[in-house]
Amino acid sequence: xxxxxxxxxxxxxxxxxxxxxxxxxxxxxxxxxxxxxxxxxxxxxxxxxxxxxxxxxxxxxxxxxxxxxxxxxxxxxxxxxxxxxxxxxxxxxxxxxxxxxxxxxxxxxxxxxxxxxxxxxxxxxxxxxxxxxxxxxxxxxxxxxxxxxxxxxxxxxxxxxxxxxxxxxxxxxxxxxxxxxxxxxxxxxxxxxxxxxxxxxxxxxxxxxxxxxxxxxxxxxxxxxxxxxxxxxxxxxxxxxxxxxxxxxxxxxxxxxxxxxxxxxxxxxxxxxxxxxxxxxxxxxxxxxxxxxxxxxxxxxxxxxxxxxxxxxxxxxxxxxxxxxxxxxxxxxxxxxxxxxxxxxxxxxxxxxxxxxxxxxxxxxxxxxxxxxxxxxxxxxxxxxxxxxxxxxxxxxxxxxxxxxxxxxxxxxxxxxxxx
Length: 420
What we know:
By secondary structure, the protein is mainly α. It contains 17 helices and two strands. It has a single domain (35-399), classed as Glycosyltransferase, CATH 1.50.10. The protein is 54% helix and 1% strand. The protein has a two-stranded antiparallel sheet with strand order 1-2. The longest helix has 26 residues, at 179-204. It is globular, with a radius of gyration of 22 Å.
């Protein structure tokens, strides 16, 4: 089916010819409620493990175990390593780089975000002092200056996913009522301004959205950026995300959920887009768009999202990177389902179904957290915390759809960034 049909009438006609019904179209509230109630009764019962200080302590140990562990040498000159007769680390790498641990650059960034989030949410956590120490060491002014110098020459490296995570880390620090966090956030500002301008330029010139289930996914990066602009005034980037999300996604219809997951993906392209548009559209616009975008939840083509991906057959360590992605997929699905439910009208009968589906996926994710070794532990905790914060409405929460921000004294970072 045509994912980018621009006319609802054409899509509706195609659905009739194929003998299918577009989700919630032509259904009264009572009919939809009855269908959803029957469907929910068929779903597996699942409960997410209770999460408290002990569990936060276990997750918090993961980023601490990898944040000082230098990333392996890639094939060819890259972010951290020098190349001569053999790859070697510069003697001062820990003074000229900030995000050199946890397997790869973006994982180092989101691991630091996780440390900030846990330190804020559990201020009496016994690991919190060590987390603070590592954040202060890595995000020192000199380290960030080295990062900025690298990225001025780095072209497309880590854009947009890593860039978006850096902005989310900054927003988490900015909303922490803590003097040390304020100093650390100030250290990050030059890199934040640079990335903001580059992302504005990137989204404005993106001819087509990436709908992959891995890092280049456009909707995921836009959602991470919205987490930043919802708490930090950044007019140019906010407007760019809103403008381009509508340009790229408003016309999408009948997302092919039956095709998911595609290989070893860590996110659902359909749910990631639906989550993004819940942040872009108004409370009245969003259900109308969603009705024509996702299949009805009891439709056969949606059932790939209604059960967790079984990773038990993946036992070779050579395949653990992909295995970790499929474990992380459970958390991303669960988080997106919670966010979609939050955006629907209060009495929408799909909300209980979404929460049950989120529980099914999340409970599987927690059960499989440790099954991919270091290839999972260096990043999976971050996505577990993202889900937990969404499910329990912890942390900075956006209010209403993204829109043009009021004028502020914040410098327009797009004007500060030299073109590459």
